[in-house]
Amino acid sequence: NILVDTHSNGERFPIAHLINFGSARIGIENILSDGISGTPGFMSPEQELNGTVTINSDLYSLGATLICLLTGTPSTDIKTLIDRNYSFNVRKLMPQLSTLFTMWLEKMVSPNSKDRFENAAAAIAALRPIPMFGDAANFKNVTMAMKPVKTSAIVGVASITALAILATSLTLFRQQREQTNFSKTQRPQREIVTKKISGKSAVEQLRTTGECQGCNLRGANLAAIKIEDAYLREADLFKANLRGIELREARLQNANLKSAQMQGANLMKAKLQQANLSHARLEGANLMSSNLQNSKLERAFLGGATLMRAVLENANLRGANLSGANLMSSNLQAANLQMANLKDAKLTRANFKGANFKGANLDGAMMSRASIRGVDLSRAVLKDADLRRADLVGANLTDAKLMGVDLRGANLKGANLKNANLQGANIENANLQGANLQGAIMPDGTLNE
Fold it and tell me: How far lies 402's CA from each of 191, 342, 395, 397, 431, in Å?
């Protein structure tokens, strides 16, 4: 329920208000025959079809709301924008939008919940650096000028932030459309994808041939271009703009991608062995099944990124931000994850044998059936993490914070839990044979001396 106040005490921009009316508004919200409450078209397909609500169902609803706002479609007519497969044709409905913003919005309203962002935090992380029409400076200025969203009910911080940015986008879009309608001779604004470089251009070579081994592409603007199976071994892409770039199956071994902007990039099955990605911005990027063996990812930003089945063996992820990332079934053997942020990350069935998690934040992480044998988790934060049936044989959990962790059926044989805090943890059927529990706080709050 969103109300927009266009005349709010002389404010520069309209203010969006989040209002919780519940289901009391007759004629606006529908109660379906099976008892599901919601507005058809705004409910995610999984909710409308079988009543299933996932963690990212609200993202679909938010995306659908945004599409209605941007197209000027009344909420009662939303069904006219959706095909029989529950898909929005975002590119056709809003051709003025930048490629990156279109990709972001398409991901928000994907009919398949698995293709959406993992959560609101991942969605907002991927959205922040994206310009709506290619003019990042104007987008940033409008964002800064916006007043905070007012609410009459308690809502999540991530949702408030997302709505603020989306409202900003709406304001900018409306201004663009009004200017376009005012003068029929005015051309619609187009996204600038790449900058022209004088002389022999490495950028042009890459775009025309798909090959640029060892090229100097420092600071190059390659946003949103499509170069599948590109050959960029040992290329220098330091601080390059690669937002939304299509580099599926690209060969980037030994490439320098330090501090590169790669939000929303598609690097599925890319070969990135020994590449330097330290401090790179990879929020929302697709790195599924990519090879990052021996790569440098210190302090890289990977919030909400997809790394399912990725190879990260011996990778350096010290201090990296992987909050909300999907690392299911990935190979992180001997990886360095010291001080890394893995809050709410999906790590089910991942292989962490010999990895270093010292001081890492794994609060709320999903690690069921993960192989964590012999891993250093000393001083790690694992509060409320899911470690059901995880293999923690010989793991070092000294001083680890395990409050509320789910360890049902986990194998902790020979693990070191000295001074660990297990208060509120579920250790049903866990194997603690030979485990060191000296000084540990047990699930019932007692100190094991």
Answer: 49, 15, 14, 9, 16
